[in-house]
Amino acid sequence: MRKRTNPRLTHKLILGTLVICIMGFYCFTAQTHHVTNSVSMASCAQVTPHVHVWNNSSAEKVTCKPKVNLMFMKTHKTGSSTMLNILLRFGEKNQLKFALPHSRNDFFYPSSFFRSQVKNYRPGLCYNIVCNHMRFNAPEVEKLLPGDAAFFTILRDPAELFESSFHYYKAYVPQTWRIPGKNKLSEFLTYPNRYFNPEGMNSFYLRNLQFFDLGFENHLEVGDPRVNESIEYVAKRFQLVLISDHYEESLILLKDALCWQMDDMLFFKLNARRAVAVSSMSPELKAKAREWNGADWKLYQHFNATFWARVEAYGRRRMEEDVRELHRRNAEMEAICIDGRGAVVAEDITDGHMKPWQPIGEATILGYNLRADIPQQFSELCRKMLTPEIQYLTDLGVNLWITRLWGWFKDNVLS
Ligand SMILES: *[C@@H]1O[C@H](CO)[C@@H](O)[C@H](O)[C@H]1NC(C)=O
Ligand SMILES: *[C@@H]1O[C@H](CO)[C@@H](O)[C@H](O)[C@H]1NC(C)=O
Ligand SMILES: *[C@@H]1O[C@H](CO)[C@@H](O)[C@H](O)[C@H]1NC(C)=O
Ligand SMILES: *[C@@H]1O[C@H](CO)[C@@H](O)[C@H](O)[C@H]1NC(C)=O
């Protein structure tokens, strides 16, 4: 009997090879480009664009000037996509200038950031906002922004973050494929040294990812003095470090630090996973995850402490009231914008433009349907609040052909 090759499989293989060749070529040329281009330039001039502020609301007395020059160090798996949406809307509303990535949604992560990775970058150009994924590199970021720019970032309990990263990126980290058993997460954390290979492809997703994102070495032992030095560095460089596990409180502190209005802080939770796709971790497993990610755990503990000290300074009562107000305003927007069922799985999202990006092999990330009867004055705001990151960046003019090509490949060939 002759063996018949499946024509669909052959098709997939040919297409897959083609896509990989194109992307490989792209990565090679782009890498070369950024190396040759990174000569040192003068830092940018101090300009603060005009921002119109309402100064007539009795509830919010404006006594400060809103900050418009911002560096948001977007960490992975920390609720940072929701924050990105807030920043993109603020920037658009106030006609601020974004330093956007070129043809993808990050600045060549996991490579270090270089300003030549910014779309249409020319020496001497100055921006208001930098907010896409990158591996932080302070001197390069600083050269894009006025000297008064506010730097902030967001951290998450490394136990939760590890769980999220382990699942979301598993297809990108080949060393996780050979972990046996049903609960790979637990197996890995019980015997990390059996499974972890620091030289393996994308291994940074498996250890101290926050340290890595912030530009530091991610294999340091907790006792290493460089862990302490790195934490001190973050404390000096960033005006504010938010805590993802207390999202609303974080936004209120941010609003206060940036002198923004409650209107600017409204949000819907974006890029969340279906509850069934989140594995619950026992206290023992959490402890193992924190021990394994010791540098991140130390980092987190430090900034969790400074966070609550800031809440204290802000006023506990005042914080509670403001969080309640933010809840109320978000619920109001939800009633106006979102179709009754709340967050839904991708296949139930009717408008293709509203479908979120999915990890390889499974559609666990939730999105939303817009209500059909949104009053005219809210329709644009609703749409923007619910637009996923990739589509929003495309709307802002980032040509994401490489990301779209990869997305197509991922959804049609890999699954
Ligand atoms: C807001 O109004 C107060 C009182 O009228 C004034 O002192 C203050 O400068 C105003 N703030 C801004 C940002 O315009
Ligand atoms: C402030 O005044 C402007 C112009 O008079 C008005 O359009 C706006 O709605 C007012 N804002 C608030 C929050 O009262
Ligand atoms: C780093 O070490 C110094 C000196 O031992 C100590 O005072 C400081 O609190 C440490 N910082 C952190 C973030 O642990
Ligand atoms: C963060 O700090 C608060 C206040 O000190 C504390 O109650 C909480 O347990 C800390 N969280 C973690 C995960 O350590």
From TrEMBL:
GO terms, biological process = galactosylceramide biosynthetic process; myelination
- The organism's superkingdom is given as Eukaryota
Sorted UniProt keywords: Glycoprotein, Golgi apparatus, Membrane, Signal-anchor, Transferase, Transmembrane, Transmembrane helix
Cross-referenced InterPro entries, in alphabetical order?
Gal-3-0_sulfotransfrase, P-loop_NTPase
Give membrane topology per the record. Answer: Single-pass type II membrane protein
MF GO annotations: galactosylceramide sulfotransferase activity
| Major location category of this protein | Golgi
Checking Pfam families in the record gives:
Gal-3-0_sulfotr
Task: Output a single Gene Ontology CC term carried by this record.
Answer: Golgi membrane
Compartments annotated for it: namely: Golgi apparatus membrane
What family does the database annotate? Answer: Belongs to the galactose-3-O-sulfotransferase family.
PANTHER family from the UniProt entry: GALACTOSE-3-O-SULFOTRANSFERASE, GALACTOSYLCERAMIDE SULFOTRANSFERASE
Q: Tell me what this protein is called.
A: Galactosylceramide sulfotransferase-like
